[in-house]
């Protein structure tokens, strides 16, 4: 069942059309990769969905009901969680403190024990390999940090989770760990939107691959589409072929 539906989403920054007429569907239990060259509009799309930049036009629907996402709090209450590329973790604080930053369990005092138990529970569900929830973030690997940031976003019980370049700057083993984690999110029934530059990572976990080019939809492919097909949609290498085919059809019609 489709959870999130975008139709005709456009966003301009002055003279720049960052997004033009974007359509997107994401169902629960589905991993949709969004790929595209620099400037394709990926980050802008993430920001529209996370309430950072409201779109100029178009509709966003949840379970078929049109919604607005005027600010980040609205995105979270709709059940759209975003893990931004910078992760926004506090290096000097431990895992528990980072998970609950800003929404600590207080009843009536700060309930450290309850937070620690919840933290272990959540990381356990994600099969995360974190040595201790009392480890400061600074001592964790990039993959472990990504895991903590994802775990934190799950505390709000989202239905859609957006991951912006979750494997950028990770080594092979850590990338595998994060890709496993993404599969676990899918198993939990979440709709996952994964922004990535890395075709291997995309192929490893995505159910569908959506290509953006120059702020527009430029293909929606099954995970087993050939790399050449996807790369040419990303780079526009097939643009001329498409134009040529259209011209030939037109000419044929006139004969
Ligand atoms: N805040 C902004 N102000 C002006 N232009 C922006 C802003 N954010 C993005 N853009 C422009 O919108 C286009 C799409 O950018 P972006 O969404 O960052 O692409 P991607 O993440 O795919 O590299 C680019 O031309 C970029 O320069
Ligand atoms: Mg970007």
Characterization of the model:
- It is a single chain.
- This protein is an alpha/beta fold.
- It has a domain at about 1-90 and about 155-225: Rossmann fold (3-Layer(aba) Sandwich), CATH 3.40.50.
- Helices cover about 40% and strands about 25% of the residues.
- It has helices at about 40-50, 70-80, 95-100, 110-125, 140-155, 170-185, 200-205, 225-235, 240-255, and strands at about 1-15, 15-25, 30-35, 55-60, 65, 80-85, 160-165, 190-195, 210-215, 215-220.
- Helix 5 (about 140-155) runs parallel beside helix 6 (about 170-185).
- The radius of gyration is 20 Å and the shape is globular.
- Bound molecules: adenosine-5'-diphosphate and magnesium ion.
- Adenosine-5'-diphosphate binds near residues 36, 38, 40, 42 and 44.
What descriptors fit this protein?
binds magnesium ion; binds adenosine-5'-diphosphate; globular; alpha/beta; 6-stranded mixed β-sheet; Rossmann fold; 10 strands; 4-stranded antiparallel β-sheet; 255 residues
Ends: how far apart? 46 Å
Counted beta strands: 10
The CATH superfamily label of the domain at 2-90 and 157-224 reads P-loop containing nucleotide triphosphate hydrolases
Secondary-structure class: alpha/beta
- Give the radius of gyration: 20 Å
Strand order of the largest sheet: 6-7-8-3-9-10
Strand portion: 25-35%
Shape: globular
Question: How are helices and strands ordered from N to C?
Answer: EEEHEEHEHHHEHEHEEHH
What proportion of the residues is helical, as a percent range?
25-40%
Number of helical stretches of at least 4 residues: 9
Bound small molecules, which ones?
A: adenosine-5'-diphosphate, magnesium ion
Instruction: Identify the CATH class of the domain at 2-90 and 157-224.
Output: Alpha Beta
Major sheet, described briefly? 6 strands, mixed
What does the average pLDDT come to? 88
The CATH architecture of the domain at 2-90 and 157-224 would be: 3-Layer(aba) Sandwich
Q: Which parts are unreliable, with pLDDT below 50 for 5 consecutive residues or more?
A: none
> Which topology of the domain at 2-90 and 157-224 does CATH recognise?
Rossmann fold
């Amino acid at each position: 069942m489709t959870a999130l539906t975008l139709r005709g989403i456009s966003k301009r920054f002055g003279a720049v059309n960052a997004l033009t007429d974007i359509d997107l569907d994401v169902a629960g239990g589905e991993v949709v990769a969004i790929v595209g060259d620099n400037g394709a509009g990926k980050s802008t799309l993430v920001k529209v969905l996370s309430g950072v930049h409201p779109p100029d036009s178009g509709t966003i629907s949840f379970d078929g009901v049109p919604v607005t996402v005027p600010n980040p709090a609205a995105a979270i209450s709709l059940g759209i969680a975003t893990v931004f590329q910078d992760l926004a973790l506090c290096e000097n604080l431990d895992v528990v403190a980072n998970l609950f930053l800003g929404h600590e369990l207080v009843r009536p005092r700060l309930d450290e024990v309850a937070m620690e138990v919840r933290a272990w529970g959540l990381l356990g569900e994600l099969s995360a390999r974190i040595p201790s929830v009392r480890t400061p973030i600074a001592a964790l690997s990039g993959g472990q940090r990504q895991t903590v940031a994802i775990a934190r976003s799950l505390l709000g019980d989202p239905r859609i989770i957006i991951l912006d370049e979750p494997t950028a700057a990770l080594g092979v083993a850590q990338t595998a760990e994060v890709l496993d984690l993404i599969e676990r999110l899918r198993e939990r029934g979440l709709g996952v939107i994964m922004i990535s530059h890395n075709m291997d990572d995309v192929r490893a976990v995505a159910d569908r691959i959506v290509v953006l080019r120059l702020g527009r939809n430029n293909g929606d492919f099954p995970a087993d589409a050939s790399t050449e097909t996807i790369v040419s949609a990303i780079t526009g290498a097939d643009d001329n072929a498409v134009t040529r085919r259209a011209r030939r059809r037109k000419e044929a019609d006139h004969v």
